[in-house]
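Project standup — Tuesday

K.O.: blocked on the structure for the chain from last sprint. Re-posting the sequence here as requested.
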Amino acid sequence: MQQGEEIKQLIPQREPIMMIDTFYGATETTGKSGLTVLADNVFCEGGQLREMGVIEHIAQTCAAYNGVKNKQNNGEASKPKLGYIGEIKKCQIVRLPRVGEQLTTDVVATAQVMNVTLMEATTKIGDETIASCQIKLFEED
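H.V.: unblocked you, prediction finished:
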């Protein structure tokens, strides 16, 4: 499990746009992160994390998964690579998280070709699924 400064070794985002506060780990094809929604979050409005915040949380979970894979392939000293959302498909946001709620997001890499990763993501609060999507990420070399 990684938190705080350790997460900055996996993703290029920094405050105030960091949207994961815990990374639980990765396997060959999966990753899992968490985020406690705080009132001062840049994507919060009216006591809720808005849609773009949920999507950014999912994208950063994918980036953290890629960061772990990078470190495994290139050594611990490797820096996080910049990435871009290339496509989001089949996105469903069932409800918006409220301030104080804890998100957990699971991602599964379904395909990877060179610097493009296709992932499926599910975001939950407890046992309740609140969002899911397919996301295509491009990483710079």
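K.O.: great, moving the ticket to review. The first helix runs from residue 51 to 74. The mean pLDDT is 94.
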